[in-house]
TrEMBL record:
Domain Prolyl 4-hydroxylase alpha subunit Fe(2+) 2OG dioxygenase residues, every copy: 20-94
Domain of life: Bacteria
InterPro entries per UniProt: Pro_4_hyd_alph_FE2OG_OXY
Pfam families for this protein: 2OG-FeII_Oxy_3 (PF13640)
Protein name: Prolyl 4-hydroxylase alpha subunit Fe(2+) 2OG dioxygenase domain-containing protein
Organism: Marinobacter guineae
Gene3D superfamilies reported for this sequence: q2cbj1_9rhob like domain (2.60.120.620)
Length: 100
């Protein structure tokens, strides 16, 4: 049986959400664009733990990418995905900011 993604909501308000996410070995995130009902969505993702193999984040356009660990991007405009995690787990601290 494949392990499930575990998401813990650390903070949630109308404009800001903070999540701690664990992606298990074997998981991948298919290419997608995040939908928002209004405004602009920004995500700042900090990879706390990289998997030993796989689990690479790919985005059509980042605002910035710092050493493959810290990404700022517009998930509502640009397609993004995570390649299959071949070995280990991927831990992510994610900040989602919605602006009007």
């Amino acid at each position: 049986m494949t392990a499930k993604v575990r998401t813990r909501i650390l903070f949630h308000s109308r404009h800001l959400s903070i999540y701690l996410v664990r992606y298990p070995e074997g998981h991948k995130v298919v290419p997608h664009v995040d939908m928002v009902s209004e405004g602009r969505l920004y995500k700042l993702n900090l990879v706390l733990v990289k998997p030993r193999a796989g689990g690479r984040f790919l985005c059509e356009k980042n605002i910035f990418n710092l050493a493959g660990r810290l990404y700022l991007f517009r998930p509502d405009l640009y397609q993004h995905r995570v390649s299959r995690i071949e070995r280990g787990n991927r831990w992510l601290l994610s900040f989602a900011l919605t602006r009007s």
